[in-house]
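[User]
If only I could read C-alpha cells as easily as an amino acid sequence. I have put the entry right below:
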Amino acid sequence: MARRLGALLLGLSLTALAGCGSTSATAGADGTAPVPRTLAPAPAGPSTGLTAIQGTVLGLPDGERATVHLEIWPADDDTKVGEAVDIRSTPEVETDPSGHWSVAIDPSDLGRKYFSTKSPVLNVDVAVRAGDVGASWSVPLWFLVADGVWRSDQYATIDDRVVDLTMDLAAQQVTTTSSVGESETQALPVMPFTAPSG
C-alpha cells in the first residue's frame, strides 16, 4: 500500500461525463440566449469505489477553471469555547474544462477524531474558489462499511449513486443530489475571495 500522505489520502478523478441528466442553461459569450447544457448523473454501483463526492461548478467565464477542496470537521470535538477547531483541509483540486470534479477518500487514512466505523459519517464543507470569488457548502458523507463505498446517508445502497453537488456561481445557487437521486436547490452565498497577505 502506498505511503500515507498525511492523515488523509485524497484521490482526484476528473472524468468527462456523458449521458442524460439534469439540464442547466449557460449564456453565450456574446450575450445570446442561454444554450441548454445536459449534466450527466453521478456514477452509481460498486464501480464507484472510494469516490466520496463529485460535482460541477457552473457560471465560470469562458476558459476559467475553479479549484475545490474539502474541509473535514472532527466527529467528536472536545474543543472548548474560544479554542480553534481542528478542521482538516484537503489539497485543492482543479475542475476539468467542463467544470467537473470528483474526490475519492480512503477512510483507513482518516484518524479516529474524524471518522469511526461505529458512526461512519464525515461532516465536510465543499469549498470552491474561482478567480476572486468563493463559496462553501456543507454535506454529510456516509461510508457504507459493508460495501466499501461512500453515499449520502446510511439508508443508501451500493447500487445508488455518489453525492453530487452542482454550484452555480453566476446564479448563486447550489443543487445537492442525494444517492437516491433526490435533488434540492438552495441559495448559495458567493463571497469575494481575499488571498492571505504575506
